[in-house]
Amino acid sequence: MKIILIGPPGAGKGTQAAAIREIYPAAHISTGDLLRDNVRRGTVPGLEARRYMDSGSLAPDDLIINMMKDRLAEDDARIGFILDGFPRTTAQAEALDAILSSMQTGLDAVLMLDISDEDVVRRLSGRRVCVSCGAIYNTVNRSPEKEGVCDSCGGAVIQRNDDHEPVIRRRLAVYHADTAPLTAYYDKKGLLRRIGASEAPDAALLFLETLKGAI
Ligand code: AMP
After folding, report:
1. Residues 118-175: pLDDT tens digits?
2. b or e along 112-137 (b: 16 or more beta carbons within 10 Å of the residue's beta carbon)?
3. d(CA 65, CA 86)
């Protein structure tokens, strides 16, 4: 199972990836999570990426491509992967094609999660995350029992710097300009499937059904 999840920030790519992994063995690879881990550890790529992340712009292609080359070479990714947040530009998509062909493999499907900009803003401005284990909460219907403390691991639950409305709007603009054109790239290859993501639970089910039909 080698698939890509494409969709604007807040479309639920991480949630869908977790649902898929319950059924299919595959590494969930999120470039956003990899970058945040690098930022936390203070690595050189992390320090470079941070200023782009905080402003809602994309980190440079070569930084991301090198990071993904290493990640895709790890054992768990050889069995299968779900890419979440990568590729985000045509240059990244072309680099991924080259990496996969050098590994003598290819993609099974590219799933595109459709959601309106206003739904994204509503979802992300209420999102809260645990800095230790990554658990996701929201201010509407899923707050931790003790404010600011993760129910699962006791870590700090915070609002990500890039989940403030002006930055969310910037991330959406970047998505429409740089990432949405990838749908045509993968459509031409016959790999693209579109899924409505506004209703999260329905989307997860539909997503898996579509996936079974796609492989
Ligand atoms: P995400 O958690 O996927 O929304 O990613 C958070 C931020 O990390 C993005 O707003 C970008 O600054 C950066 N980022 C993540 N993935 C990529 C990528 N494939 N290309 C460039 N920047 C990325």
Report:
1. 999 999 999 999 999 888 899 988 999 999 999 999 999 999 888 999 999 999 999 9
2. bbbbeeebbbebbbbbbbbeeebbeb
3. 9
* Residue 78 among the catalytic residues: no
Q: CA 140 to CA 120: how far, in whole Å? A: 14
The per-type count for the chain, helices as H runs and strands as E runs, is: 10, 8
Token pair of 136 as six digits: 């996701």
Spell out which residues line ligand 1, taking CB within 6 angstroms.
Answer: 9, 31-32, 35, 52-53, 56-59, 64, 85-86, 88, 92, 162, 171
Which pLDDT score is estimated for 140? 86
Helix 165-174 with 117-125: angle, nearest 10 deg: 140
For residue 127, the CA-to-ligand 1 centroid distance in Å is 17
Report the pLDDT value the prediction gives residue 18, as an integer from 0 to 100.
82
Domains and CATH numbers, the chain: 2-116+172-214 (3.40.50.300)
**Does the active-site annotation cover 88?**
yes
